[in-house]
Amino acid sequence: MDEALRALSPIATSAGTPAAALAALRVAEARGGRLDLTTRRDLLARLAEAVLARREAISAAIDADFGGRSRVETMLAEVRLVAGAAQHARRHLRSWARPRRAGVPLPFWPARAWAEWVPKGVVGIMAPWNYPVQLALLPAVDALAAGNRVAVKPSEAVPRTAALVGELLDRALGPDIARTVLGGPEVAAEFARQPWDHLVFTGGTATGRRVMAAAAEHLTPLTLELGGKCPALVLPGADLTKAAREILVGKAVNAGQTCVAPDTVLLVGHAPAAFEAACRASGITAPETALANEAQAARFAALSAATLPRALGPDGAGHRHHALALAASPTRGSPLDQEEVFGPLLPILPLPGLGDALAWITARPAPLAIYLFGATASEEARIAAATRSGALVSGRCVEYAAFPDLPFGGVGASGFGRYHGQAGFEEFSVLRARVRHGRWSLARLLDPPRGESARRLVHRLLDAL
Asked: Domains plus CATH for the chain?
């Protein structure tokens, strides 16, 4: 690990301030013009190669910043996901970018009409600390595929990883394509105020509101990826042993510090004691990753203090390595009931029936995901019709976010906008209308000055509808 960390080099991409980064990319855009498809595919290939080549440095940097980060989780969630997304975009880019033919109404024949995907320009990306490489570079992959230049603001809570992200972008893409801006909350606030052509923010809902308010000054289009209490709904038809294991697997990833982690288990037709026994029988007792920093550890301790958590195993070495724990039904209105857990604690709430579970879900802001276990086809259809969420997933947790062809995003307080794959290409593009008129069309008979023949033609056109 020490050798990998020493391999980090100074960042050439840091432009000092958000305004300087935007100005430099605007100059590059004016000088170099739009990125054609061949250039985009080359950039995506270079980014994938750079991420794969620096995999050990990525693992070492995040491990050092977290004070303990599972190497397997880093390789899957940071390295493979980003490199795979870049390769996927490269393979499919030509089909995504193909213009769409549009029909021409009879009065305008023989015109031709189509819609083309045009890059928005310069995309700003504000990344969080919990997946510091993935959530900085996945939006960059989609923005590059759409033909944009990017400026990235990594989280100051992971300084080694932030430095590495800047190095990767500089080496793979160069300062005419990508810039990295480093700094704390004041720099982040300034970053949000810049007149980007599109701004991506991933983080908490409260901060997302402030970012949206800052972006409103320039009417900057936004993609907000926020949080929420993702429920895991265990229905009477569920195999309790399997459901408990799958939920714990999702909760253990990154020590629960995942926006799509199962937050609260809603038990319908099962006793909490039986579910706890199934959890203990699973053998999944502790995450391999630590709570990422002291602030997160303090927040988690405060959130857990009002409950009597029942640990599934011993805590790991160090005060930020916690075992997975279960909590009894949180009191209505308590912090555990209202706030996203974002840690290795799993509240359990028994409910009499599916209607009660739906009432619990709909009484709260729409989550990023709802997880189902044991749902029949009719129950799943009922849940889909009655709820709002970014995703509805049956049989497993978290992993759907790694499907490159699935749009990823939230609803309402859990965010808006979609990215990943084709959805991201479209999110960071403008669909521009194009028309080529012929030398003559029926519509020209309606040009001023209009006489009786024009009035008769209007009536005939209306009668034809």
From this structure: 2-226+418-429 (3.40.605.10), 231-402 (3.40.309.10)
